[in-house]
Write a structure and sequence with these properties.
Strand 1 and strand 2 form a beta hairpin. It is globular and about 45 Å long. The chain is built from 5 helices and 5 strands; from the N terminus they run βββααβααβα. The protein has 2 domains: about 60 residues; about 80 residues, Winged helix-like DNA-binding domain superfamily/Winged helix DNA-binding domain (Arc Repressor Mutant, subunit A, Orthogonal Bundle). It is α+β, with helices and mostly antiparallel strands and about 170 residues long. About 30% of the residues are buried. A 3-stranded antiparallel β-sheet has the order 1-2-3, covered by helices on one side.
Length: about 170
């Protein structure tokens, strides 16, 4: 009988002036980041004192990077990022997103070409929507054709806000 062990995730909150983000950590690093919900309290909160030292260090780096990005600055040092929850295709897209410089954008087609699959525009859009670590894996920097916003998992208000903080212009 095959027994499947589920990895333990550590979930910690990140209070910011924009609301409380929720970060998730696997044994490999940051594996999820949720935008603030419309609820007043985050869904899950753990005390960092109960977390392993390695996770506390990753969380400190995540907090610092997130707050820098939200204030319009480059993130600086990121914690290890665990993108293993995605398919091979999604992981290729997410790695490509990390190569888009702050203040720059690419179209879905350009990302598809960058990963060697120029006809996969819609699939790139789907991968961007499934990005488990938005803001730090910058899917907000991917625009539709003609510099239009397109969609965004965190909502278009967040996409506009993040692009504005990076001084990006769009149609």
């Amino acid at each position: 009988m095959l027994k499947i062990m589920q990895a333990k995730l550590v979930t910690l909150s990140i209070p910011t002036p924009d609301g409380v983000f929720v970060a998730h950590y696997s044994d490999k690093g940051l594996c999820g980041l949720e935008f603030p919900s419309r609820m007043k309290k985050p869904r899950i909160q753990s005390d960092t004192d109960e977390s392993p030292r390695r996770v506390r260090a990753w969380h400190a780096a995540t907090v610092k990077a997130l707050k820098r990005v939200l204030s319009g600055k480059p993130p600086g040092r990121l914690p290890p990022v665990d993108l293993s929850s995605g398919t091979d295709f999604q992981q290729r897209v997410w790695r490509a997103l990390q190569d888009i410089s702050r203040g720059k954008t690419l179209s879905y087609g350009q990302v598809a070409t960058a990963i060697g699959n120029p006809k996969a525009l819609r699939a790139v859009g789907g991968a961007c929507g499934a990005n488990p670590i938005p803001v730090l894996v910058p899917c907000h920097r991917v625009l539709a054709a003609n510099q239009r916003l397109g969609g965004f998992g965190g909502g278009l208000d967040w996409k506009r806000a993040l692009l504005t903080r990076e001084r990006v212009q769009w149609s």
